[in-house]
Every structure is written in C-alpha cells, then in structure tokens.
Amino acid sequence: MSDAELHPALARARYRANGKIDRFVGLWLDTLVLVRNGRSPRRAVERFYADEDLRDAIATVGQDLVDAQLRDAARLYTETCLTDPSFASGLLGLQRLRPDEVRRKLAHQVGAAAAALNDLGGTGITLARLLDEGYRAAVGDPS
Known about the structure:
Elements: H1 8-15, H2 23-36, H3 42-50, H4 52-61, H5 63-83, E1 89-90, E2 95-96, H6 99-120, H7 123-139
Antiparallel strand pairs: 1-2
Helix pairs in contact: 1-4, 2-5, 2-6, 4-5, 5-7, 6-7
C-alpha cells in the first residue's frame, strides 16, 4: 500500500496532520538509539501505543494494516541507514566504513534492538518481528 493509498486514520497516525514527520520511522529510530545507549525501549513503546491517533487507526483499519506500516517503516529506516553518510562513518565521523562494515554495524544494532523489544513481551515481541522483517526486506533475506 503506497502512502497515497493510506486510509486517512492510518496516515494521520503515521504522519500526523502536517504529513512531514514519520512517527513510525521515529519509533525505530528511538528504539535503536535507546538500546545503543544501554536503555530499555519500554517507555518509547508505551508512548507510541498510547497515542490517540494510533489507537484510532488500529480501531479503524485493524492491527494488521498498522503492522504492515510499521514493517515498511523498519524497511525505510534500514535503507536510510545503509545510504546515510553519517551512519556509514566511524571514528568520530573521520573514517568512512566499507559497505560490509555498514551492514555489520546495522545488523548488530537491529539485532540488539530486536532482543530488547522481545524482552518486553507482548507487543514488544511483535515489534521485534516487524523490525526484523523490515530489515530483511531492505538488505535481502539470506534464508
């Protein structure tokens, strides 16, 4: 489903009224940054699911369509990291990482975030699966 085809309630939950801020990508960014800094993503996940627009979208279009958008956002986040010069640098931004090093860095961060989400139980387990599926869609699934 393209962004142009999104149900208005789902579009509002993902992009807000102004359409410029992707909250679903923001969830993945928040989660990976928190985990990278040794913190639990629990509060970020709780805030995300407490959002009235998201709850309205789930009630209107169903959890499966919301999950599909979360998976798509994980794919988009992964693709962005793979091509972002800031992500692809090391040593305080002074050294450019090789493509295999970028993939390894991202795989490590996604794996750690998925493990932290899985540890939350319930919704966290679903989010861990969606993050993994979005990551695999972006980098290719070796299985």
